[in-house]
Amino acid sequence: MVIDMRSQLARTATDLIERDPNVAVVLAEISVDRFERAMAIAPDRVINVGIMEQTLVGVAAGFAMEGFHAIAHTMAPFLVERPFEQVKVDFGYQGLGGTLASVGAPYDYGTEGGTHHSPGDVGVVLTVPNTDVLVPGCAAELDRLLRATYADGRLTYLRASVAQNDVAFEVGRGRLDVVRRGSRATVVVVGPLLTRTLAACEGLDVSVLYTASIAPFDAAGLAAAAGPDPLVIVIEPFYGGTLLPALADALRHVPSRFASVGVPRRFITSYGTPEEHDRELGMDVAGIRRRVVAALEPG
Amino acid sequence: MTTRAGLDHVRELMALATGDEKHDESSTSTLDALWVLYDRVLRVDPNAPKDEARDRFILSKGHGPSAYYAVLAAKGFFPEDLLAGFLEFGNPLGSHPDRNQVPGVEASTGSLGHGLALAVGSALALRARGATDQRVVVLCGDAELNEGSNWESILLAPYLNLTNLTLLVIDNHSSSIPMGPWEPRLGSFGWDVLVVDGHDHEQLFGGLSERPSGRPNAVVADIPEGEW
After folding, report:
1. A63: which chain B residues are within 8 Å (Cβ-Cβ)?
2. What is the pLDDT of residues B13-46, one digit of tens each?
3. Which chain A residues are closer than 8 Å to B152 by Cβ?
4. Could you tell me which residues come within 8 angstroms of residue A294 by beta carbon, excluding any fewer than 6 positions away?
């Protein structure tokens, strides 16, 4: 049975709570039912602050000030957009490590409307210097990334989603994997979009690279895989173009062309399942194929 | 008794820190409370500013920190001559305190409405470590308490029974919206509330020394308009 990323987050965090007395979890009502066991194990270190997201982040930073490895968790728009100044100042400016673990981006709560969507979350977090951004492609990758980074002293945004890939990679901070090789373009796929991108690229002569690490990004790995005069097409589960500055920097020494297949930069006003939004926004298999093929055509 | 001679020296140090006159009232309003805290209440060691056993103090409002800097310098956390370079490029003493640059500063503040949640987290962390004797004191201004984020934490702290947390409000009546009366407002959220004369050292000492059982406490230091 495939476990969803949100449940995996709670499971892994609970295990860390049990093993490491320096771990603290701060919640804001969301996922409280999944953390019942953790609360029973360590009621002083697993705190539900209620529906107060500025305090969620501030309290987590307070734990971090005292040397705890704090994990703050709620839905993406309420974790990094609503309390952005707490993320920027309380963690970022103060130089504190911790994990901001979200669910729901970019539009997993598809029937809830634009207030609950967050395709801009990664772009927002990337404005905070020295922050890592990790986007796992499945529950096993989330488990691996959380265990590897929760105590590394850095601020990490860990983004869980409903969509998952069929296979797990040996993901890590700053890691980029070559999935298949081709000659016409290099397709860089982020997190949970790999399975559908491989299907979309069926029969296309393109390389496919996979990463769950947006920041840091493996610039050297991309440069080595892309070769001279590359066309790089990035498949992004957030606003299109978010990763382009990192790609351009990675390939600054060679003439390069770029295209983005990401969530269009507009408010999503329709209601429906994530799959329905994928279809409307060109993020399903057919949409990704159409956009990749368009990028391959001579300008 | 408070060491008045020591406070006179702090005033001399404050006089060195020029250039932030727009925040003079913010700074002088906090002076007596800060002096009483560092002279008689907080258990802190300037030779070991990160000592695990210390009490924590967070200047939440951040604004007008010259009194804070002067008290820290007078107590030996950093050389007094740094005050003369206040706000100058390369000097660590800026218009808002930075925990990574100034010994003794627990939190980098200046964005209003952040310190109380940090203090709640710090108090929770100390409790989780089993530290029953240490305390966290956070200073907020009356106008800073306009910020809604504070009221999240004001609601939360009594719910979590944070008896190791003290909210020190400097009410210098700078808020456009009058924030009192304090007893019924904070008391209705579950805080133990005491309003004292913000210039009276014995009242400040009594209020800040008290540790009511079962709930967090708020000490409101009243500074009448014009008596900053």
Report:
1. 121-122, 124-125
2. 999 999 988 888 999 999 999 999 999 999 999 9
3. 49, 52, 54-55
4. none
Structural domain spans, chain B: 4-222
A157 CB near a chain B CB, below 8 Å?
Answer: no
Q: Search chain B and give the residue with CA nearest A65.
A: B122
CB pair distance less than 8 Å for B121 and A58? yes
What is the distance, to the nearest Å, from the Cα of residue B62 to the centroid of all Cα atoms in its chain?
9
Residue B81: exposed, middle, or buried by beta-carbon count in 10 A (0-12, 13-18, 19+)? exposed
Strands (DSSP E) contained in A216-270 are 231-239, 257-263
Indicate the pTM of the whole model: 0.97
Question: Is omega for the bond preceding B103 within 30 degrees of 0, making it cis?
Answer: no
Question: Is any Cβ of chain A less than 8 angstroms from the Cβ of B117?
Answer: yes
Residues A58 and A96: beta-carbon distance below 8 Å? no
A95–chain B Cβ distance below 8 A for any pair: yes
Question: Can you tell me the ipTM of this complex?
Answer: 0.97
B41-64 pLDDT per residue, tens: 999 999 999 999 999 999 999 998
Pick the closest to residue B77 from B18, B120, B34 (CA basis).
B34
Chain B residue closest in CA terms to A86: B114
Backbone conformation region of residue A12, classed left if phi is above 0, alpha if psi is from -120 to 50, else beta? alpha
For A2-51, how does the pLDDT look when each residue is reduced to its tens digit (9 = 90+)?
899 999 999 999 999 999 999 999 999 999 999 999 999 999 999 999 99
Shortest CA distance from B115: residue in chain A: A58
- Substitution target in A17, A66, A84 with the highest count of B β-carbons within 10 Å is A66
Closest chain A CA to residue B98 = A94
Give the tens place of pLDDT for each residue, A219-233. 999 999 998 989 999
CATH code of the domain occupying B4-222:
3.40.50.970
Report CB contact under 8 Å: B155, A45.
Answer: no
- B158-B162-A99-A11 Cα dihedral, nearest 10 degrees: -80
Are A94 and B114 a contacting pair at CB < 8 A? no
Q: Which domains does chain A have, with CATH numbers?
A: 5-159 (3.40.50.970), 176-296 (3.40.50.920)
SS3 label, residue B117: helix
Residue A111 neighbours by CB distance under 10 Å: 13
